[in-house]
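Explain this fold:

***
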Amino acid sequence: MDKLAYLARRLLVAIPTFAGITLVCFALTRFLPGGPVDMRLMRMRGLSGGGASSEIAGAAASSAGQVTEEYRRELEAQFGFDRPVWEQYRRWLFDNRMGLDLPSYDYPNKTAWQLIRSRIPVSLWFGVASFLLTYLICIPLGIAKALRHRQTFDAFSSFVVFVAYSIPSFALAMGLKTLLCGTVDGFSDLFPLGGISSDFDVEPSRWEWFVDRAWHMALPVCCYVAGGFAMLTLLMKNSLLDQISADYVRTVIAKGATRRRAIWGHALRNALIPVATGFGSMISLMFAGSIIIETIFEIPGMGRLSWDALIGRDYAVFLALTALTAMFQLVGNLISDVLYMIIDPRIDFSQK
């Protein structure tokens, strides 16, 4: 019952946390200069200066300040900016489902959800692949380093891990693209320059489609994994070393159990508790994507969508992405708490 009560409290805390995140971001988009109204007027003035014959563009670019202000008020009413901020927020959150039903400012024929939905599969492909590779490699590597502490394997693997960690993701992406994508004469072209799939003349089979997708994903996934590789590996190693040196492990060995059984049957389970802490952040990263890597490899994922929305002041899409990312982060934190309970049922939540 204590665990259920703790989870219920976490759910109740998540509601005002989500409201606070979205409210702050929503208010900033309303008060910062250069919003969608200003962007629309600037574009129309640019069209007028280039010789456009549109009457509306001409009116917006007219030297009569009165006309410009009138048109500005019309645009503010069109975007709903003429209402109080609290009412705008209420309508955005409840009437428009966190802005998912609002039309994009840059693509009026599509809603924010339609744009996001078209990018989710791409980011999930890279996010899930990176997540699985990170945990499937780092956890066994951290265990092996702990069992061979201060040996040659531990020193060599630490050197490799820290070298990979010290290279910025954009530098690694550019280096791999230069060496393996044929962008410079004299280097190999083993992998495609970018994108997520090839142009097939005929409909490919499932296996051909999967191999082609894996071929395009190989280099971006390597760049994804390199960022959190060292941290998770060392976290697993240090956590297992702490458990091995604990009194209960020595007690298990003193009662006749082998060292292997004490480590794999008792210490390892407790060592996984700190590793589960980062699971929540990984959930949000799987959804959010990476702006730099997606830009370098020309991947139409969530990272590029959020960047384009922010640069273009497409606040309808940007706020919807912010709300979804915050929701996934909160859900991921709750999943981390559930993993705590599964890994170690002895954790007492009565005082939390």
